[in-house]
Design goal:
Layout lengths: L8 H8 L2 H10 L3 E4 L2 E4 L3 E7 L2 E7 L1 H7 L3 H9 L11 H7 L3 H9 L8 H12 L6 H8 L3 H4 L1 H9 L3 H9 L14 H7 L3 H9 L14 H7 L3 H10 L5 H10 L4 H9 L3 E3 L8 E4 L6 E5 L2 E5 L1 E4 L5 E5 L4 E6 L4 E6 L1 H6 L1 H8 L6
Antiparallel strand pairs: 1-2, 3-4, 5-6, 6-9, 7-8, 8-10, 10-11, 11-12
């Protein structure tokens, strides 16, 4: 049987807002945990939380507990006594942001608080700010003097994914490149297309976004929108993106030594391949001819062939050295030859459904 823990004196004092009692505990050291050179606030104040219809107990220190219960004067007193880590590796400043208490955040900064200035730190800061953004945030960020021009690209990609115009506007104004790449997952405009944010796409294009830049899987904004079912967004992008001509694609297919039969198939279709019931996958849709794109996996140049599929993120690729269709499962690092084009197209369901189960000849 679950037994609720008793509340220690520090927790009782904080809940009551008893500043003097907390002050006495600070002075006599009862709030602290000491072990060798380590001195920090003791994490012994319980909070009951509910997770999956079950009660759980988590333990926090006086700072976290006081902040959670909006006892801000006690929070400030702990800061004044140097008991709160306000350094770049601490979560304290982000906690104030999550509470949308920018006055407390200013207090922390005035008392030596610092945010990290690496790309991951900047991204984390903007992810937290995006949920509480208001008119005070630009001035706060200006005060921090972060290297946004150089390291704010990933944050801009997240802002585009979240359709957060205010954050995107600030980052662009701070000099972040509108065509920044995020670890191979595409530019901000591609990320907006993935989630069907048509107005964000329109906004980024006006700021100079390039609709031809592909992610590491060969998707450009148009094909990313289509493959995720956002046809309105795809239609808008198609109406303004630079045209890819058949002549351009003919040259690409020739360079990759694609058989004439395969080239002609991608021109005429059918591109939607349906398989019998009972298979792991019921269908796969190939790219239209002019949408087939180059990608590079493990330094191998390849052509990406699949736009979308049922349930599985199937990647079929043309590998020019072997002149075969290959299957790629990036998550599990499975990259294996499947069949020649002639073999594959005679029974695509057989080869694809075996491939997703990692069954190969």
């Amino acid at each position: 049987m679950y037994k609720k823990p008793s509340m220690p004196p520090a927790g009782e004092a904080i809940l009551a807002g008893d500043i003097e009692a907390v002050r006495r505990m600070i002075e006599d050291g009862s709030l602290l945990f000491k072990k060798g050179q380590i001195v920090e606030l003791r994490k012994n104040i319980p909070t009951i939380v509910h997770l999956d219809k079950k009660e759980m107990t988590i333990y926090s220190d006086a700072f976290c507990f006081a902040l959670a219960h909006d006892q801000i004067e006690i929070v400030k007193m702990l800061i004044d006594h140097g008991l709160v880590d306000l350094g770049p590796k601490s979560d304290a400043l982000l906690m104030a942001i999550r509470k949308k208490n920018f006055a407390l955040l200013d207090y922390m900064l005035d008392h030596g608080g610092q945010f990290g200035k690496k790309e991951k730190d900047i991204t984390c800061l903007f992810l937290n700010l995006s949920n509480v953004w208001d008119d005070s945030c630009p001035a706060l960020l200006d005060r921090l003097a972060l290297p946004l021009r150089e390291l704010g690209g990933t944050a801009l990609c997240y802002a585009a994914s979240d359709n957060n115009r205010a954050v995107a506007t600030y980052l662009l104004g701070a000099g972040v490149d509108v065509n920044s790449q995020s670890n191979g997952h595409g530019t901000p405009v591609l990320r907006a297309a993935v989630y069907g944010h048509t107005e964000m796409v329109r906004f980024l294009v006006k700021q100079g976004a390039d609709l031809t830049i592909k992610d590491k899987y060969g998707y450009r904004p148009y094909t990313a929108a289509r493959s995720n079912g956002h046809m309105k967004t795809a239609k808008f992008i198609k109406s303004i993106e630079p045209a890819i001509t058949e002549a351009n694609q003919d040259a690409l297919f020739e360079r990759y030594q694609v058989p004439a039969e395969m080239r002609d198939y991608f021109k005429t279709g059918p591109l939607l391949l349906k398989f019998p019931e009972g298979e792991h996958l019921g269908w796969v849709r190939l790219f239209a001819y002019t949408d087939v794109a180059e990608i590079c996996y493990q330094e191998q140049p390849l052509l990406s062939l699949v736009e979308d599929s049922e349930d599985f993120a199937v990647m079929l690729l043309w590998e020019p050295q072997s002149r075969k269709i290959w299957f790629l499962d990036i998550e599990h690092d499975i990259f294996h030859a499947v069949a020649t084009w002639e073999q594959f197209i005679q029974n695509p369901g057989y080869y694809i459904n075996r491939a997703v189960m990692w069954e190969f000849d």
